[in-house]
Amino acid sequence: MNFIYQLIFIFFIYSFLGWIVEVIYTTIMENHKIVNRGFLTGPICPIYGFGATFVIILLSKYLDSPVVLYFMSIIIASILEYTTSYLMEKIFKNRWWDYSKFKYNINGRICLETMIPFGFLALFMMYVLNPFFFNLITKIDPIVLKYVSITLLVFTIIDIILSFNIIITLKNVSNSIRCDSTEVITKKVKEILFNKTIFHKRLIKSFPDMKVFNKTIILKNKVKKDKEKLKNEKKKNKVKRKK
User: Between 214 and 117, where is the model more confident?
Assistant: First the structure.
């Protein structure tokens, strides 16, 4: 049981470190000012915590093979980021990040430019950071570790609930706009939410490349896909008749 609490603690350590990486990257490469990055209000990016935890659990047996560890880490990170992007878009009807402008991307959800560095970060984590962090964690009294881990989980659950309510506001605002242009809807939603609470404003600043969809666009895209599918089926039938 103590190992579970150690993993929870490690999860929050890497979630926090991931948040720091995101803030530094955004500050230097994009906004040139400090922005609280991430879906949650608190200073953590859970996707980094989950990625690190999965790598530790699934790939520790490959520590003797850095090459295998490197490529397996890339695969895990790719699956995690793609799945997260897909689920968040389906649940909240928003595209939170988009790598379409980068070469070698898959549906704009993941790209080679971000996956390659993650492989090296995984190596650094497994061979340098993990021994250091686990050495420190094992020195913490098990009772203290338990209650600290539980406290962090409780605060995170509260943060998730608050953040979810903010996203619902975003979704409701987008559906109230009568327009079928993603660019126009995204711009209007950002303008409306920017004038609400600091939490809404933070979310907009955190995801500058966010794309907002509403029911009209979703329906329009569905109709478009159905038409393309029907068109392709007609072409196939014509080819079969000629044969």
Answer: 117
pLDDT in tens, 183-201: 767 777 777 767 776 666 6
CA distance 200 to 240: 55
Q: CB 82: neighbour CB atoms within 10 A? A: 14
For residue 95, with 0-12 CB atoms within 10 Å meaning exposed, 13-18 middle and 19 or more buried, which class applies?
buried
In order of 34, 218, 223, 225, 242, the CA distances from 232 in angstroms are: 49, 21, 14, 10, 16
Asked whether 210 and 183 are in contact (CB, 8 A), the reply is no
Tokens (6 digits) for 131: 């021994």
* DSSP letters spanning 98-136: --TTSSSEETTTEEHHHHHHHHHHHHHIIIIIHHHHHHH
CB 10 within 8 A of CB 57: no
CB 76 within 8 A of CB 59: yes
* DSSP β-bridge partners for residue 95: 211
First to last CA, the chain: 66
Amino acid at position 137, single letter: I
Which DSSP symbol is given to 17? H
CA 44 to chain centre: 12
Please answer whether residues 145 and 9 qualify as being in contact, where contact means their C-beta atoms are separated by less than 8 angstroms. yes
